[in-house]
Write a structure and sequence with these properties.
Structural class: mainly alpha
Largest sheet: none
Number of strands: 0
Strand content: under 5%
Number of helices: 7
Order of helices and strands: HHHHHHH
Oligomer: single chain
Helix content: 55-70%
Number of domains: 1
Distance between the termini: 13 Å
Shape: elongated
Length: 201
Amino acid sequence: MQHLNKHFTLKAIILSAIFLLSSFSNSFSQNNSVSMSVDEAYRAIPHRQTTFNPEKAKMKASSKATLNEMLQLADEAMAQRVQGMLWHQTNAQRGIPYESYETNINKILQRLSALKPPGRLASVRKLLVEAIQEQKDYFKSWHNQSAELKAPQRFNPRHALVKRSHNKLIKAYNLLMQMYPSANPHNKQAFFDHLCALDFL
Protein backbone atom coordinates (compact mmCIF):
# COMPACT_ATOMS: atom_id res chain seq x y z
CA MET A 1 0.00 0.00 0.00
CA GLN A 2 2.81 2.42 0.85
CA HIS A 3 4.45 1.70 -2.52
CA LEU A 4 1.16 2.26 -4.32
CA ASN A 5 0.54 5.60 -2.62
CA LYS A 6 4.04 6.83 -3.45
CA HIS A 7 3.64 5.78 -7.07
CA PHE A 8 0.22 7.42 -7.37
CA THR A 9 1.45 10.68 -5.77
CA LEU A 10 4.42 10.88 -8.15
CA LYS A 11 2.04 10.28 -11.03
CA ALA A 12 -0.14 13.22 -9.95
CA ILE A 13 2.88 15.56 -9.91
CA ILE A 14 3.99 14.40 -13.37
CA LEU A 15 0.45 14.70 -14.71
CA SER A 16 0.06 18.29 -13.52
CA ALA A 17 3.44 19.25 -14.94
CA ILE A 18 3.08 17.65 -18.34
CA PHE A 19 -0.27 19.31 -18.97
CA LEU A 20 1.48 22.67 -18.64
CA LEU A 21 4.26 21.92 -21.11
CA SER A 22 3.92 23.86 -24.32
CA SER A 23 5.43 20.97 -26.24
CA PHE A 24 2.31 18.96 -25.46
CA SER A 25 0.51 20.80 -28.26
CA ASN A 26 2.64 19.02 -30.85
CA SER A 27 1.23 15.63 -29.86
CA PHE A 28 -2.45 16.27 -30.44
CA SER A 29 -4.75 18.22 -32.72
CA GLN A 30 -5.60 21.80 -31.82
CA ASN A 31 -9.27 20.93 -32.43
CA ASN A 32 -10.91 20.47 -29.02
CA SER A 33 -13.52 18.12 -30.49
CA VAL A 34 -10.91 15.50 -31.38
CA SER A 35 -11.00 12.77 -28.75
CA MET A 36 -7.88 11.17 -27.33
CA SER A 37 -7.52 7.41 -27.71
CA VAL A 38 -6.73 5.19 -24.76
CA ASP A 39 -3.17 4.70 -26.04
CA GLU A 40 -2.70 8.46 -26.40
CA ALA A 41 -4.05 9.02 -22.89
CA TYR A 42 -1.56 6.55 -21.40
CA ARG A 43 1.26 8.39 -23.17
CA ALA A 44 -0.07 11.77 -22.04
CA ILE A 45 -0.09 10.95 -18.32
CA PRO A 46 2.52 9.29 -18.85
CA HIS A 47 1.92 5.77 -17.50
CA ARG A 48 3.08 2.28 -18.38
CA GLN A 49 0.38 0.41 -20.31
CA THR A 50 0.00 -3.30 -19.65
CA THR A 51 -3.22 -4.71 -21.08
CA PHE A 52 -4.98 -7.57 -19.31
CA ASN A 53 -4.65 -10.79 -21.33
CA PRO A 54 -7.69 -13.02 -20.74
CA GLU A 55 -6.11 -15.89 -22.71
CA LYS A 56 -3.40 -16.20 -20.07
CA ALA A 57 -5.75 -15.71 -17.11
CA LYS A 58 -6.22 -18.65 -14.73
CA MET A 59 -9.92 -18.14 -14.07
CA LYS A 60 -13.33 -19.25 -15.33
CA ALA A 61 -14.35 -18.15 -18.83
CA SER A 62 -17.16 -15.96 -17.49
CA SER A 63 -14.75 -14.23 -15.12
CA LYS A 64 -12.20 -13.66 -17.89
CA ALA A 65 -14.74 -12.03 -20.17
CA THR A 66 -16.27 -9.82 -17.50
CA LEU A 67 -12.96 -8.71 -15.99
CA ASN A 68 -11.60 -7.94 -19.44
CA GLU A 69 -14.60 -5.72 -20.19
CA MET A 70 -14.36 -4.02 -16.79
CA LEU A 71 -10.72 -3.13 -17.32
CA GLN A 72 -11.39 -1.92 -20.86
CA LEU A 73 -14.09 0.38 -19.48
CA ALA A 74 -11.65 1.55 -16.80
CA ASP A 75 -9.29 2.54 -19.62
CA GLU A 76 -12.07 4.42 -21.41
CA ALA A 77 -12.87 6.28 -18.19
CA MET A 78 -9.17 7.07 -17.78
CA ALA A 79 -9.04 8.61 -21.26
CA GLN A 80 -12.03 10.79 -20.40
CA ARG A 81 -10.43 11.85 -17.11
CA VAL A 82 -7.18 12.82 -18.83
CA GLN A 83 -9.03 14.88 -21.43
CA GLY A 84 -11.21 16.53 -18.79
CA MET A 85 -8.15 17.48 -16.76
CA LEU A 86 -6.43 18.77 -19.87
CA TRP A 87 -9.38 21.10 -20.55
CA HIS A 88 -9.03 22.63 -17.08
CA GLN A 89 -5.23 22.71 -17.05
CA THR A 90 -4.97 24.50 -20.43
CA ASN A 91 -7.84 26.94 -19.84
CA ALA A 92 -10.08 25.21 -22.41
CA GLN A 93 -7.45 25.20 -25.14
CA ARG A 94 -7.22 21.40 -25.37
CA GLY A 95 -9.03 18.33 -24.14
CA ILE A 96 -12.82 18.12 -23.80
CA PRO A 97 -15.23 20.41 -21.92
CA TYR A 98 -16.96 19.27 -18.75
CA GLU A 99 -20.27 18.68 -20.53
CA SER A 100 -18.65 16.23 -22.97
CA TYR A 101 -16.78 14.52 -20.15
CA GLU A 102 -20.00 14.12 -18.16
CA THR A 103 -21.91 12.67 -21.13
CA ASN A 104 -19.15 10.20 -21.96
CA ILE A 105 -18.61 9.12 -18.36
CA ASN A 106 -22.32 8.54 -17.85
CA LYS A 107 -22.30 6.14 -20.81
CA ILE A 108 -19.30 4.29 -19.37
CA LEU A 109 -20.96 4.05 -15.95
CA GLN A 110 -24.13 2.68 -17.54
CA ARG A 111 -22.13 -0.01 -19.34
CA LEU A 112 -20.28 -0.93 -16.15
CA SER A 113 -23.50 -1.09 -14.15
CA ALA A 114 -25.09 -3.35 -16.77
CA LEU A 115 -22.38 -6.00 -16.32
CA LYS A 116 -23.17 -9.04 -14.20
CA PRO A 117 -19.82 -10.09 -12.72
CA PRO A 118 -19.67 -13.54 -11.11
CA GLY A 119 -18.71 -13.97 -7.48
CA ARG A 120 -16.34 -11.48 -5.90
CA LEU A 121 -15.83 -9.65 -9.17
CA ALA A 122 -19.11 -7.93 -8.32
CA SER A 123 -17.27 -6.22 -5.45
CA VAL A 124 -14.51 -5.08 -7.81
CA ARG A 125 -17.12 -3.70 -10.20
CA LYS A 126 -18.86 -1.88 -7.33
CA LEU A 127 -15.59 -0.23 -6.26
CA LEU A 128 -14.81 0.73 -9.85
CA VAL A 129 -18.24 2.29 -10.40
CA GLU A 130 -18.04 4.24 -7.14
CA ALA A 131 -14.50 5.46 -7.88
CA ILE A 132 -15.48 6.73 -11.33
CA GLN A 133 -18.64 8.33 -9.94
CA GLU A 134 -16.56 10.18 -7.34
CA GLN A 135 -14.21 11.37 -10.08
CA LYS A 136 -17.24 12.63 -11.99
CA ASP A 137 -18.52 14.41 -8.87
CA TYR A 138 -15.12 16.05 -8.40
CA PHE A 139 -15.10 17.26 -12.00
CA LYS A 140 -18.55 18.79 -11.46
CA SER A 141 -17.34 20.59 -8.33
CA TRP A 142 -14.18 21.73 -10.13
CA HIS A 143 -16.20 22.98 -13.10
CA ASN A 144 -18.70 24.84 -10.90
CA GLN A 145 -15.96 26.46 -8.84
CA SER A 146 -14.18 27.70 -11.97
CA ALA A 147 -17.47 29.06 -13.33
CA GLU A 148 -18.34 30.84 -10.08
CA LEU A 149 -14.91 32.46 -9.81
CA LYS A 150 -14.78 33.11 -13.58
CA ALA A 151 -11.25 31.71 -13.69
CA PRO A 152 -9.79 28.20 -14.09
CA GLN A 153 -8.98 26.58 -10.76
CA ARG A 154 -6.09 24.26 -10.04
CA PHE A 155 -6.57 20.55 -9.51
CA ASN A 156 -6.89 19.78 -5.79
CA PRO A 157 -5.31 16.39 -4.94
CA ARG A 158 -6.43 16.78 -1.31
CA HIS A 159 -10.13 17.05 -2.14
CA ALA A 160 -12.25 14.46 -0.29
CA LEU A 161 -13.74 13.09 -3.53
CA VAL A 162 -10.28 12.65 -5.06
CA LYS A 163 -9.06 10.78 -1.98
CA ARG A 164 -12.15 8.56 -1.78
CA SER A 165 -11.85 7.61 -5.44
CA HIS A 166 -8.13 6.92 -4.96
CA ASN A 167 -8.78 4.65 -1.96
CA LYS A 168 -11.47 2.67 -3.78
CA LEU A 169 -9.16 1.99 -6.73
CA ILE A 170 -6.47 0.74 -4.34
CA LYS A 171 -9.07 -1.52 -2.71
CA ALA A 172 -10.12 -2.84 -6.13
CA TYR A 173 -6.48 -3.61 -6.99
CA ASN A 174 -5.84 -5.34 -3.67
CA LEU A 175 -9.03 -7.39 -4.07
CA LEU A 176 -7.97 -8.57 -7.53
CA MET A 177 -4.57 -9.59 -6.17
CA GLN A 178 -6.28 -11.53 -3.35
CA MET A 179 -8.69 -13.22 -5.75
CA TYR A 180 -6.04 -14.22 -8.28
CA PRO A 181 -2.77 -14.83 -6.40
CA SER A 182 -1.61 -17.27 -9.08
CA ALA A 183 -2.12 -14.84 -11.97
CA ASN A 184 0.92 -14.57 -14.22
CA PRO A 185 3.22 -11.53 -13.83
CA HIS A 186 1.82 -9.86 -16.95
CA ASN A 187 -1.76 -9.86 -15.70
CA LYS A 188 -0.74 -8.84 -12.18
CA GLN A 189 1.01 -5.84 -13.71
CA ALA A 190 -2.09 -5.21 -15.83
CA PHE A 191 -4.28 -5.08 -12.70
CA PHE A 192 -2.03 -2.34 -11.38
CA ASP A 193 -1.63 -0.36 -14.59
CA HIS A 194 -5.32 -0.29 -15.53
CA LEU A 195 -6.38 0.97 -12.08
CA CYS A 196 -3.42 3.24 -11.37
CA ALA A 197 -3.80 5.00 -14.73
CA LEU A 198 -7.47 5.62 -13.96
CA ASP A 199 -6.62 7.18 -10.60
CA PHE A 200 -6.29 10.94 -10.13
CA LEU A 201 -3.28 10.42 -7.84
